[in-house]
Amino acid sequence: MTDATLVAGVGVPDTKLAREATELVRDETSELIYHHSRRVYLFGALQGRRRDLAFDPELLYIGAMFHDLGLGRRFHDSGRRFEVDGAEAARRFLREHQVPEDGVRRVWTAIALHTTPGIPEFMEPEVALVTAGVEYDVLGIGYGDIAPADRAAVLALHPRPDFKRRILEAFTQGIRPKPETTFGNIKADVLEHYVPGFERGDFVRTVLDSPWPE
C-alpha cells in the first residue's frame, strides 16, 4: 500500500490514519458529505499548490474529512455549533492515534473556523486550506483558480449531482435542532430560508437590550 494516490496531481494520503478517518466518515455520514469532504481536501490542496503553501497533507485530509461530521444526528442535542462538534470529534480521533498536539490544534482550528470567512486565510496552511476547499466547493469562490482538467479529474471521482440543493438540505437538518447556535454566523441564513418561523438573532438588538442600565 502506497502512502498516497494522485488525483489531479495531488497526493491523497493513504496512511493508516487517513484510511481510518475515511472509514469513520463513511460510517457516520451520507454519501453526499463523504464526496463533499473528499472534494474539500482535493480543492484545498490544489489551492495550496497554486498559492505555493507548504502543508501537511495528512492533517489537511483529516480536517477536510471531519469538517462536516458535526452535522450528524448524534450531535443534534449537543447545544454547540456543528463546527465545534466536528472539531472535537477530530481532536479525540487524533489523540487516540497519538498525533502531536500541534497537529491536533491545527485540525481543530481548521474545522472550527471553516465557516468564519476572513480569518483562516491568515493562519497556518492547513487551517487556511480547509476553508479554501469549502469555499471552492460550496460557494464557488476562486472557481477559475483551478484548471478545468484538474476540476474534472476531481469530479470524476467525487461527483456532485444536485449538490447545491442537497448540501443546503444537509445544513438545515444538521442545525435545525439547535437554532440558537446560528447567532452571529452564516448558518442563520440557512434556517431563515428553510425553517418557517425561524427568527435570527440581531446583534444590535442584543446590545441595546442587554441588562446594562445606561
From TrEMBL:
All copies of domain HD, residue ranges: 34-121
Organism domain of life: Bacteria
Pfam families the record matches: HD
Protein name as catalogued: HD domain-containing protein
Protein's organism: Streptomyces nogalater
